[in-house]
Structure of Phosphoribosylformylglycinamidine synthase subunit PurS:
Amino acid sequence: MKIRIFVTLKNGVLDPQGKAIHHALESLDFKGVKDVRAGKLIELDVADDTSDSDLKKMCEKLLANTVIENFEIEKLTDQATEEA
């Protein structure tokens, strides 16, 4: 089973990478970008019987720093996997 985990900084946490991207976009003359928040995407291929609880524990123990980050778990269907 294919899993995507999106990890983003919580609101209020400074995002130096996002600021650097924003500055670079402005310097390349891209106008209208008000703010940038950077995150990460982690893709896993796990056994079909992997529980939602286990996926959550993976995020909480290793994949996300839950003090400053949020995470969202997405299970991909066969069609979504083929499109990716």
